[in-house]
Design brief:
The two termini are 14 Å apart. This protein is mostly helical and 142 residues long. The protein contains five helices and two strands; from the N terminus they run αααβααβ. The radius of gyration is 15 Å and the shape is globular. A two-stranded parallel ribbon has the order 1-2.
Length: 142
């Protein structure tokens, strides 16, 4: 499971679809609807928020918006738009780690997207996150 800290605009088609599915799985975990993935490291930051379900719905809303931008038809009924916007933090080291991780994936499966992004110095985070100084997040499996 990878719930990216970077903005979904940088993901290729496979990456965006996988993010949608994996975040919906994470939502099911947070709702207590599945027994698998309960202790997955990617869920820690959502579980530690003041309202995990609202935060995961806010996260999904951005992924959904990106799907619309690309002309995809993700199911809006899978998440709630009834959330109070929140902000979580993510370290600069985590953003850099994810950027490099994505570049490795894109180099193999979507070379055009890789070429489009490789020259970008700064990568925006998902709008849920505010970047702070720091190394790779402790929950990340390196």
């Amino acid at each position: 499971m990878r719930i990216w800290s970077i903005h979904p605009q940088y993901l290729d088609t496979k990456g965006l679809v996988a993010l949608w599915r994996e975040t919906l799985l994470a939502k099911n975990v947070l709702e207590g609807k599945t027994t698998g993935y309960k202790n997955h490291p990617q869920l820690i930051r959502f579980k530690n928020s003041d309202n995990p379900l609202q935060v995961i719905n806010q996260y999904l809303s951005v992924v959904y918006q990106e799907s619309l931008t690309r002309g995809y038809h993700f199911n809006k009924a899978k998440f709630s738009i009834d959330f109070s916007p929140r902000t979580l933090t993510v370290t600069q080291g985590q953003i850099e780690y994810e950027k490099q991780h994505l570049f490795k994936k894109l180099k193999i499966r979507d070379f055009n997207k890789y070429n489009e992004l490789i020259s970008q110095k700064d990568i925006e985070p998902h709008p849920l996150f505010k970047i702070i100084e720091g190394e790779i997040e402790e929950w990340e499996i390196v």
